[in-house]
Design brief:
The chain is mostly helical. It contains twelve helices and no strands.
Length: 272
């Protein structure tokens, strides 16, 4: 099956399993993968096992009774689950400022620390912030820059992975929220892939050094080749881990047989 066939089937299953709250298939796998990895990249201490337990039962435990967890990690994990569901509900809708703000609201509205600090939740940042060696946008410029970024992306009739990489680099350079920019940005990548029938890109924590290196080059030099290649690697990983959740054994066997067949019939003519 080609990329388009795979993604169409994936979107159908995501919607069916989401509506039924079936957490044993591709919906559960994608939810857990996104939540664990995206939060872990930002410093969460929760493990994959604890993430799965929170998603499936609303509880988790630890084998080490001396371990202390940050309440923020738990609040943001629950917020990430909500943000993913919000994205699923708005799948195939055009990307917009309001949709992005909605993602942030679902991620952050239950995080006490952000509320106590007076961070804008579900809205653009109100105070200047700084990120590493990137000159991010001032608060007063965010609405205009985000609108321009979205308009440029949505005006493209044939979206490629390079366009998604360029959007991500631009979004993270603007850094429109007080906190949560990376997690919202990575959720936007997932939405853009699904909306354009591309295999999802889920940034894994174990590859975050490569991700940040490629992202930094894209931001400073507008060189997106490395980020695109990295995205392709994550696409292959996602497909290999979900294909058996989407297709039956018989379908996969048939597809494998068809791929082994010659492209066209030919007549054998012996040498004389």
């Amino acid at each position: 099956m080609n990329e388009n066939e795979f993604t169409v089937r994936l979107k159908q299953r995501l919607l069916i399993e989401f509506k039924k709250q079936d957490r044993s298939g591709v919906y559960g796998f994608t939810q857990r993968s996104m939540a664990y990895n995206s939060n872990r990249i930002e410093g969460s201490t929760l493990t994959e096992k604890q993430t799965a337990s929170m998603f499936e039962t609303g509880t988790f435990y630890t084998d080490d009774t001396d371990v202390i967890f940050r309440s923020k990690d738990i609040e943001e994990m629950n917020g990430h689950f909500k943000m993913f569901n919000y994205m699923i509900k708005h799948m195939d809708e055009p990307l917009s400022s309001e949709l992005i703000k909605g993602m942030h609201k679902n991620l952050k509205e239950g995080v006490f620390e952000d509320l106590a600090n007076g961070y804008a939740v579900g809205d653009w940042k109100k105070r200047e912030n700084r990120v590493s060696d990137i000159s991010v946008a001032l608060p007063e410029r965010v609405p205009e820059l985000i609108n321009d970024l979205i308009l440029d992306f949505n005006s493209n009739a044939n979206i490629t992975l390079r366009d998604i990489a360029a959007f991500h680099a631009g979004f993270e350079s603007i850094h429109p929220f007080q906190d949560g920019n990376g997690r919202v940005g990575r959720m936007i990548i997932l939405k853009q892939c699904l909306d354009n029938n591309m295999i999802p890109v889920i940034i894994r924590d174990e590859n975050k050094s490569e991700y940040y290196r490629c992202l930094n080059k894209a931001q400073h030099m507008h060189d997106y080749d490395g980020l695109v290649r990295y995205f392709e690697k994550e696409q292959e990983y996602y497909k290999s881990n979900t294909i058996k959740m989407l297709y039956s054994y018989e379908e996969l066997k048939e597809a494998s047989y068809e791929n082994d067949e010659p492209d066209e019939e030919y007549e054998y003519i012996p040498n004389i």
